[in-house]
Amino acid sequence: MRPSDYLRFYAERFHTVEVDSTFYACPTARTVENWNARTPQGFVFSVKVPQTITHDKVLVDCEAEIAEFLEVMDILGPKLGPIVFQFPFFSRSIFPDRHAFTDRLVPFLKKLPADHKFGIEIRNRDWLNAEFANLLRDHQITLVLQDRSWMPDPLELGFDPITSDWSYIRWLGDRKEIESRTMTWGKPVVDRTTELSSWVDFCYQIMKRGVLVYAYANNHFQGHGPATIAKFLELWAANGFGKLTLPGRINAQQATLFPPPD
Q1: What is the mean pLDDT of each successive set of 10 residues along the chain, which is 262 residues long?
Q2: Helix crossing, 98-110 with 130-138: angle to 10°?
Q3: Three-state DSSP class for 137?
Q4: Domain range spanning residue 132?
Q5: CATH of the domain at 157
Q6: What's the total number of domains in the chain?
Q7: What letter does residue 52 receive in the DSSP assignment?
Q8: How far apart are CA 250 and CA 228, in angstroms?
Q9: 78 located within any domain
């Protein structure tokens, strides 16, 4: 298969994709036009905000960069889904505490357009608490949930992590540990059944609340991202939670990896 056919092939099998390349640089308009042309109606692109904004400038003097990025992403029209601010771990030399971070974050959030979906991923474990969740909730910003080695899963948080009418889940795993076993990503090498069973229950409960779920699996979670999705669907079906199927034709009302349960 030619690399130019990868996206079309993927979009025949999944509802949505998380685009990692936008983290490294804002794509050209032509690139985004090609993404749009190679995917069916109802497909959803979740995109990461460029690191210039989240890592280099850390929300300071980046109005031009965020405006450029949103203008290019808007080429996708209804295919544009969540826009994720993926922040790094911040040392105390950058932000002494969470409040120093939110003092910078809140004015920035107030400038974001209300007609887009925005999510925030933070990697400072001790910043995750009810107060931070409430701040995001006040601005209708989604807290990105992660399954990775040093971050808590939803059951460990001790507060409601749903901060808008949609949720965003990233199954990331332990990169260092799995790369000690393999550097090829064609099959699972780690059994994550226990973790995925917990996520199945969590997703079912929040979907009953009417929350739309976007979820993505990194190869580093088990060794093979598509196999992680297949295992999730298998566990979902085994729990009798209704049918979740991979798309044939996707309609705009079902533009998520996990449609509402039957």
Answers
A1: 94 95 98 97 97 98 98 98 98 97 98 97 97 98 94 93 98 94 95 96 95 96 96 94 58 42 51
A2: 10
A3: helix
A4: 3-254
A5: 3.20.20.410
A6: 1
A7: I
A8: 21
A9: yes
